[in-house]
Amino acid sequence: MQPFLTIAEANKLIADKQLSPVELTRFCLDRVQKLDPVLHSFLLLTEERAIADATAAEARMMAGSLKGPLDGIPIGHKDIYNTAGIRTTGHSKLLEHNVPSEDSVVVQKWAEAGSVLMGKLATHEFAIGGPSFDLPWPPARNPWNPDHFTAGSSSGTGAAVAAGLILGGTGSDTGGSIRGPSALCGLAGIKPTYGLASRRGVLPLSQTLDHTGPMAWTVQDCALLLQAMAGYDPLDPASANRPVANFTADLDKGAGGLRIGVIRHFHEIDNPVSPATAAGIDGALEIFRAQGAEIRDVTVSSMMDYNAPGWVILTAEAYAVHEPWLKQRFNDYGELLRDRLAFGALLRAPEYVQALRRRRVLCLEMREAMADLDILITASAPAEAPKINEVPKWGMFEKPNFTMPFNLTGLPALSLCTGYGVGGLPVSMQIVGKPFAEATVFRAGHAYETATAWRSRRPAMSTAPAA
Amino acid sequence: MDKEEFSTLVDQSGLTLSDEQKAVLFAAYPMFQAMVARATPPMSREAEPSVIFVPEVR
After folding, report:
1. Which of A326, A358, A394 is opposite residue B40, by nearest beta carbon?
2. CB proximity B50 to A under 8 Å
3. In which band, very low, low, confident or very high, does the pLDDT at B54 lie, cut at 50, 70 and 90?
4. Most buried of A50, A364, A437, A464, CB within 10 angstroms?
């Protein structure tokens, strides 16, 4: 068996009866045993469940009744997604022994699609407080260099996919928690349009900013995973009641004819990026131009103007979610979460409402900026991953991040790898689409990925021969 | 706002923090206030919030 398979590749082999889902699952389980003592990407390995899922998939394969592209594919879920009968902790002492009785909607959908549940993945505490060293489990490490940060909060998914422990997994994204770890771990990860995928059964952080979404090695795999998780959920008040597009239909159309706007001031002025990150974006624009895309710069408000209401709203809503525990069990939280959320207690009601009013103004501005464009491009992270012990507690106040503007506006936003910079660590860019235009975002991302060779490189620790 | 006023503000919120924990938050509070100020510039009286009530509750 090839040491690394994408979901699309594994699916083709399984469909052709050339790959056993059980063999693939055992291969991934072995890799978890070998690498996860360093990576800490899994909070819980569900080995028996994985073998049972894989055995069922194998029976369907032999009977010619495979369910689709995820059948027999090893995946993992961020440990804020409820899993029936399987511990779901939020990576927090407060839910250390929590066992939900029902699956979240996305977990249920991926299970119905035939995926193989490998286990529950590390997260920053309740999807905000990290990297933390004072929780019941250690933080996940970056497989490109375990001394470095994965970003978060979907840290375990980022590490596990990059190292090849799973082929895809869930993340959640309130201010960048899918796209941040996708960027620093060298993956593809999409925060879909707000309302496209159900949030029901996922531990909430900030209800008007929370999104569920997939992370995988390639853009194509993200499209396959999102297809299996998108759709109307009448019991999620934010869910959009509209048909789901075919996310893979346009994948091979290339970038020709796309109208691309570059929010250059975000990554050149508002938060200047590293040389490798800048070179990656410039290289991508050259590729798009060569394929026939029309490219021009776009100017919107400063990135900090988008970040400020986002963080005010997030802090207020997250504080409201956690207030009872913060008042009664403040010291049971990790230091990073409790300090970041404590400010929510000091916000005044008019400040939250004003931030919501400001949000609408900025949504209208972004819509106007995109009126005659198909996608926007900027960075998804400022630079290569920092060392894990050098991540500032108040980083969100000091510099604006590249991801929050698209939580605030709800637009679909994909992070994908654009090469490797200092220390061989990945760099990335972000492709943003119009509401519910994920297919166009995937089309552009796939056009870039297939025109470059970045996907052929994996972290050295994953490719090293067994001792 | 001085340290004592900040301490009173925290106490009024209902959180029970040690003096050391209050000091950590007090040091970062100006950055948080700057963020809040940037998020809440003057807007017209008619400006609508991004989240509005929908009567068809489901």
Report:
1. A358
2. yes
3. confident
4. A50
